[in-house]
Specification:
Elements (H helix, E strand, L loop, with lengths): L9 H7 L4 H4 L2 H7 L25 H10 L4 E10 L7 H6 L12 H5 L5 E10 L3 E7 L4 E7 L2 E6 L4 E6 L15 H4 L4 H10 L5 E11 L2 E10 L6 E9 L5 E8 L7 E9 L17 E4 L3 H5 L13 E5 L6 E5 L18 H10 E6 L2 E6 L5 E5 L4 E4 L3 H11 L1
Parallel strand pairs: 6-12
Antiparallel strand pairs: 1-2, 1-11, 2-3, 3-4, 4-5, 5-6, 7-8, 8-9, 9-10, 10-11, 13-14, 14-18, 15-16, 16-17, 17-18
Helix pairs in contact: 3-8
Length: 404
């Protein structure tokens, strides 16, 4: 018999988020965006006759099952599809890679941007918090990011380039070394995405059990998360949870506007046994160009960004929950120089990209341009202030007006 569809009560939701909500109250829209940030299919239907017949379970019990899961060892294949309604990032990624063309094609930030559009197949493996591997499979090449102890390796077989970083105890990456938990922070599995959503569950969120399914040959319950607030671009999030061990097997985010999903990440094959130690071994191939992580990229960053967002004039959050909007200003209340726009401030490819998405708007804040996707929208005002969130254009303009 299919599991019940009883709604998660407000009190239950508050209990679920007790350990996390203070730090992550406004994280849902940002986490969903990043996929990302930055992160298929249609809205999942109720369990059909071919779906597994599992014991009844409440949403509270299913989330507790996920939280209690101790599975840290697995390997398998993941299919990730992202449809934000954006043009290809091919030319844009090259344009922002550095004026002098230096850098490595094996650097994680260069390759993982590709996951923001299209469909990709990944091979993943993990053996606890100190060993992870993610490989992006391409037609005739492969990109791998490997975390093994205190070392991180990136390898692009198409260019035979290697990126290498070590962890010397600095976990914020400002010294050019990679944080020890870099691969864990990459949203490359359903669990990565589901964790961030459930951390921020509160009384703005409806959580139900929406049937059962089979994913990668394993029986699963479907946890359905929906905003209760109007104005969010998120329609629903469905997480297929392994009925045996509580591991998320599939994550699907559908927009409030309808149509195909914005993000669909799911295992097509999965094995929960311990991967071989050799899985995480890496030696640069003969003749490969090896780039050691250093401070070059940090030194080349715009002056306003060298210290990260903590050095900006302010990152304020307007509203709460699914309709929260981030207001970003630069030092002295101005936006960072490279965000102000204007001729010569942005690479030509990037400017074309922005122009294709822009929509002129007016309000109490003055005039500005709204850049839209199927999930995340951003408003840049004439004075350079940026408002961004997983909200509709009208909600974004309203937030900018209220901030004045």
């Amino acid at each position: 018999m299919a599991p019940n569809d009883s709604a998660q009560t407000t009190e239950e939701a508050k209990d679920l988020a007790a350990g996390h909500r203070k730090a992550a109250r406004y994280l849902v829209p940002v986490a969903v965006a990043g996929v990302a940030a930055a992160t298929i299919g249609l809205v999942p239907a109720l369990a059909a006759s071919g779906d597994p017949d599992l014991p009844k379970i409440s949403a509270q019990e299913l989330i507790e099952k996920m939280a209690a899961s101790k599975t840290e060892q697995f390997s398998g294949t993941v299919k990730i599809s992202t449809d934000l309604g954006l043009p290809s990032f091919g030319g844009l990624a090259d344009a922002v890679g550095g004026e002098d063309g230096e850098g490595s094609s094996a650097a994680p930030d260069a390759k993982l941007t590709e996951l923001a559009t299209g469909t990709h197949t990944l091979r993943v493996a993990a053996d606890g918090p100190d060993r992870q591997k993610v490989s992006i499979l391409q037609d005739s090449s492969e990109y791998s990011l490997i975390h093994n102890g205190d070392e991180v390796w990136g390898y692009d077989s198409s260019s035979n380039e290697v990126y290498h970083a070590t962890d010397d105890g600095q976990r914020d990456g400002k010294d050019g070394t990679a944080p020890k938990d870099l691969p864990k922070d990459l949203p490359t599995t359903p669990g990565d995405l589901a964790d961030e959503v459930l951390k921020a569950a509160d009384d703005t969120t409806s959580i139900t059990v929406g049937g059962t399914s089979q994913v990668a040959g394993r029986d699963a319950y479907k946890l359905v998360v929906k905003p209760k607030q109007s104005g969010s671009t998120v329609g629903s999030i469905t997480v297929a949870v392994d009925a045996e061990n509580g591991v998320p097997l599939k994550f699907t985010l559908t927009p409030s506007s309808g149509g195909k999903a914005v993000v669909d990440v799911g295992f097509t094959k999965v094995d929960f046994s311990k991967p071989a130690a050799s899985t995480f071994d890496f030696t640069p191939p003969k003749g490969a160009k090896v780039t050691e992580a250093d401070e070059k990229a940090h030194e080349k960053a715009p002056e306003e960004f060298k210290g990260g967002f903590e050095d900006l004039g302010g990152l304020n959050v307007i509203g709460e929950g699914w309709t929260s909007v981030a207001k970003i200003e630069g030092p002295g209340g101005e936006a960072p120089g490279d965000l102000k726009g204007g001729e010569g401030d942005v690479p030509a490819e990037a400017q074309q990209f922005l122009d294709a998405l822009g929509d002129k708007v007016e309000g109490k804040f003055g005039t500005g341009t709204v850049f839209t996707t199927r999930l995340v929208n951003a408003l840049m005002t004439e004075d350079g202030t940026v408002y961004v969130g997983a909200v509709t254009k009208d909600a974004l303009v309203k937030a900018a007006n209220e901030a004045k």
